[in-house]
Amino acid sequence: MNMQQQTQTASTMTGGQPLNHGAHEMFDVHEVLSCQIDVLNSYMMLRAFVKDQELLDILDRQYNFMLEHYNLTCQCFKTGQKPARETGTYIIPNMTQPVYGFQPAEPSKPNQSMADVKDAGISSLMLGHIKSHASLLAIASSEVTNPTLRRVLSAQVQEFVEMAYELFLYQNKNAYYQVPQLQTSVMQQMLDAYVPAAGAPQMPANNGGAALH
Questions:
Q1: What is the chain's pLDDT, residue by residue, as a tens digit (213 residues)?
Q2: What does the record list as coiled-coil region(s) (predicted)?
Q3: How many domains does the chain divide into?
Q4: Which 3 state secondary structure label does DSSP give 17?
């Protein structure tokens, strides 16, 4: 065995355990797992203040899904191998259509006491956590070198997007998250601002890296 092979073996196996992770991804995955714990802990703390049964059902469903995938990610990160279970698909049980428009509402302000903690604020906190973690998963998965861990992280991005949409629909239905629209003429102009490419592009010949003149 030559020196290069010895170095590679030492860097990938310790006590029979594969260490097939790059240095940068170690920090990224630590951040993912740490932030996932923060989200789970926040959900647990918020649960005590939820009044609406529908929001409570959403919180419990999302918590259980996230906890399962936290465990999957931990296992995959630790072993560098495919986890015992596949990543799952998050299903919104009662999909509704968004309500567009903007109605007058009370201006927002910070809570003055615990009596001000309401479902509107709780669902907003939940949505913020989920959207932030979806972004973090997308960024981290593009940096991970271990192919299995990369897929485990990237597979969760869409599921967090779904959870965020479920919370948006809940907020939207209760007028916590309103969706104003542009004037029809402006919207139509923006919709017409792009068209598909027509025909086959005429790609230039490769010049082998020679400078363009």
A1: 444 444 444 355 555 566 777 787 889 999 999 999 999 999 999 999 999 999 999 999 999 999 999 999 999 998 888 888 899 999 999 899 999 999 988 889 999 999 999 999 999 999 999 999 999 999 999 999 999 999 999 999 999 999 999 999 999 999 999 999 999 999 999 999 999 999 999 898 888 777 665
A2: none
A3: 1
A4: strand
63 found inside a domain: yes
**Using an 8 Å Cβ cutoff, are 94 and 166 in contact?**
no
Q: What is the CATH number of the domain that holds 49?
A: 1.20.1260.10
Cα separation of 61 and 63, whole Å? 6
Helix (H) or strand (E) holding 155, with range, is: helix 147-173
Phi-psi region of 83 (alpha: psi -120 to 50; beta: other; left: phi over 0): beta
**Torsion sign (Cα): 55, 56, 60, 66:** positive
